[in-house]
Amino acid sequence: MNPESNPLKMAANMADARSNTVAVQATNDDASASKLSCVKKGYMRDDYVHFFVRRPVRRSPIINRGYYARFAAVRQLLDQFLNSDTHDGQGGHAKKQVLSLGAGFDTTFFQLQEEGKSPHLYVELDFKEVTSKKAALIEIHEEMREKVGVAASISTDTGEVHGDHYKLLPVDLRDIQNLNETIALANLDPSLPTFIIAECVLIYLDPESSRSIVGWASNTFSTAVFFLYEQIHPDDAFGEQMIRNLESRGCGLLGIHATPTLEAKERLFLDQGWQRAVAWNMLRIYTEFIDRHERSRIERLELFDEFEEWNTIVWLMLSMMPWYILAS
Question: If you write DSSP's letter for every residue of 91-104 in order, what string do you get?
Fold first, then answer.
């Protein structure tokens, strides 16, 4: 019998996938705790992340610096996108959108609102278990409730928030038909410039699902930027230890062996119709992309004696600059 047609094996694979999904959803708490640790140390400002952390923890300097580099990379690219001078073809300035895939408990929308930089529309998608929790927290905290708009509708039962400029909706990203229906419900306009974010999301999916999502984005949006942040190099000592640590928590990196290098990440996008893809590791991001004055500031925040370990960090940041990407 073909193993793939074995009902018991198929049931076991489905159970493994569900288990992986639940474990991955729990990483929201880790990400929020890491961000709050950075905020408390003065790496960045975020007035909302503390609403999502039940038990604050103090991360080590290397974790704080690594998280800061991740935060600074996406914010710098996002700010460039929002500040870029694009036109609507009728002499006016084009409205802009942000689509966050697997958004978790990210607070970027609220901070952009605080800073007066928010786009025309900001849409966050995740599993219903996650969006329901986030919707509940938005509802009970006036500071966030105010930012989504006093007239916004919030449902913790469905895990949805519908404001004029912010939408939070549940979806399984692997279901492309449902994904299309969800972005229609969110009133996303595929013709508008769109910044797509996927931080440690696609790597937890099977390779075929990742390819489908990347291809879907290319085919759906006429002008888009796709920011991807995820792990690479599973076969060196650091990568093997990382995988063991994640698997011990039930978080299998299902897609890492399909795209194990920077070049493979670029090829994933180019093969799915993107016109340009640029992949950098986080060490290069930190040393070449982040402003040197900003690096000097954060390097004075904590004593740091883990330079050798820092230099082995092989997290990936893949970005496509908005003035180069046109998905067709």
Answer: SSBPP-EEEEET-T
